[in-house]
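Hi V.,

Quick status before I head out on leave. The structure for the redesign project is tokenized and pasted below; the design run finished overnight.
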């Protein structure tokens, strides 16, 4: 497994679940990590235990000005960005503990899911790309889902956001390739023990994945150089087989 010694990694949705786990793993591999999410207190607690330098910048991914501040503070503090992990995400399941048909989804619910899961990724990507272009290298890792390739009833907003994310990932890869920048999507490969699935009955929760399920794949993707794989979307296990 490669190390990320002294590299700078921004992780959105860093206060819990998959984001927290990736932050801790990136730091263990030597990276300097920028944690961003809305819950500053939880991020400060995580950062206090990291073995490498870190920076906590609270922000709502739906606020383009806040996103710009995250990137500006990262460059001010560390002088570069090597990897952006767009992990922040929400689901109506996580907010309501039940699936809702399209006829029952409100304007605000639809907007919240699309703005966090897709527009927020666009905001962060737009702000980070110029820095990566200047460096002639870098990696963008978008955390996707099996629902970015398949659909289920009762999760229209989430499915739409992840299908959009898959398209945005491929567009980013096409535009960035000439600059040596890779953009890929990473899917945990199943339901993960995070807030989104907290409503599941205990017998189903026993079958879901631990939050560290993507850590190995995320490190491999972040360690890629300018000639790396780009424009692809795979489950964590498939990425490990491809890059390991």
């Amino acid at each position: 497994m490669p190390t990320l010694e002294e590299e700078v990694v921004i992780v959105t949705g860093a206060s819990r679940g998959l984001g927290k786990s990736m932050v801790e793993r990136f730091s263990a591999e030597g990276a300097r990590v920028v944690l961003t999410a809305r819950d500053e207190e939880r991020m400060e607690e995580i950062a206090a235990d990291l073995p490498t330098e870190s920076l906590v910048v609270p922000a709502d991914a739906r606020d383009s000005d806040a996103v710009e501040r995250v990137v500006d503070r990262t460059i001010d503090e560390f002088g570069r960005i090597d990897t952006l992990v767009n992990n922040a995400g929400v689901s109506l399941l996580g907010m309501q503990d039940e699936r809702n048909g399209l006829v029952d989804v409100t304007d605000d619910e639809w907007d919240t899911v699309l703005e966090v899961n897709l527009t927020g990724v666009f905001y962060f990507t737009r702000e980070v790309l110029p820095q990566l272009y200047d460096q002639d290298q870098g990696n963008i890792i978008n955390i996707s889902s099996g629902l970015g390739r398949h659909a289920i009833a009762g999760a229209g907003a989430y499915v739409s956001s992840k299908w959009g994310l898959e398209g945005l990932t491929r567009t980013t890869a096409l535009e960035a390739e000439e600059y040596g920048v890779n953009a890929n999507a990473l899917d945990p490969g199943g339901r993960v023990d995070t807030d989104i699935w907290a409503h599941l009955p205990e017998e189903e929760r026993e079958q879901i994945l631990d939050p560290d399920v993507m850590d190995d794949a995320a490190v491999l993707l972040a360690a890629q150089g300018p000639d790396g794989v780009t424009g692809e979307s795979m489950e964590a296990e498939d990425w490990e087989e491809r890059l390991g």
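Above is the designed sequence. The chain has one domain: 8-243.

G. will cover questions while I'm gone.

Best,
W.
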